Amino acid sequence: MPPLSPPPPRLMLNAVSCMRNAQTVLRDINVSVHDGTALVLTGANGSGKTTFLRMLAGFSRPSAGEILWNGHDVTSPGVFQQYKLQLNWMSLKDAVKEKLTVLENVQWFELLEGKHGRSAPAVELMGLGRLINDKARMLSMGQRKRLQIARLLAIDRPIWLLDEPSVALDTEGVKLLEYVIAEHRKKGGIVIVATHLPIQIEDAMSLRLPQRFPRRKTLVDLVR
Ligand SMILES: Nc1ncnc2c1ncn2[C@@H]1O[C@H](COP(=O)(O)OP(=O)(O)OP(=O)(O)O)[C@@H](O)[C@H]1O
């Protein structure tokens, strides 16, 4: 029997560029992402990390190149409908509904997904069990972030797009985030993270986006 060829990447970016506000933010990006892997995006403020995630989420289209999911261009209408059901997008805007309880905030998304029974364990895992019936408006910033992560777990889609997921989390919260990322990958899930803060993600691929404009001297340079 001939040697088996490795499986094709689940996601592939071929020479992708992306414009925002008539300016090229991302230029000629090539990345292959297989099941169970993680990609960490780093780079200076404004280098395009959020733009990268937004483009993968389908909010912006590539201005050049192609994004392939299972070998199909995600911008094709038939493909996009299926592709977007694979995605779980966690942005800095937390979409927490203040008048609902912590549990209802997670269940709301779970129900939309046609699933049930995952919300309470997810809330417990994220250390919010004591607050499960409290109104979400009572939550601190870090607790709101934990609630967002509980939603990821309850919705349980394969491709996670996480924009600064550890902002506002305490040390235990970051450990929980690292744990849920590792568990998701063990199940074959994909995690793409934009971050400035160190997160321990084993064997993650790293993509550092270049600074977009030559840097001008700042007050910090002058002080140095
Ligand atoms: N809504 C918008 N409309 C037009 N241009 C935008 C918009 N949001 C961001 N940009 C521009 O796109 C570029 C990349 O922004 P982006 O938010 O992707 O960077 P980032 O790497 O995520 O930055 P940060 O580290 O500050 O979060 C920036 O130069 C910014 O000015």
Automatic annotation (TrEMBL):
SMART domains: AAA (SM00382)
Protein name: ABC transporter domain-containing protein
Superkingdom of this protein's organism: Eukaryota
Domain ABC transporter, chain residue ranges per copy: 11-223
Organism: Brachypodium distachyon
GO function terms (MF aspect): ATP binding; ATP hydrolysis activity; transmembrane transporter activity
Protein keywords: ATP-binding, Cytochrome c-type biogenesis, Membrane, Nucleotide-binding, Translocase, Transport
UniProt keyword Cytoplasm, yes or no: no
NCBIfam families from the UniProt entry: ccmA
A biological process term (GO) from this entry: cytochrome complex assembly
InterPro entries, per database record: AAA+_ATPase, ABC_transporter-like_ATP-bd, ABC_transptr_haem_export_CcmA, P-loop_NTPase
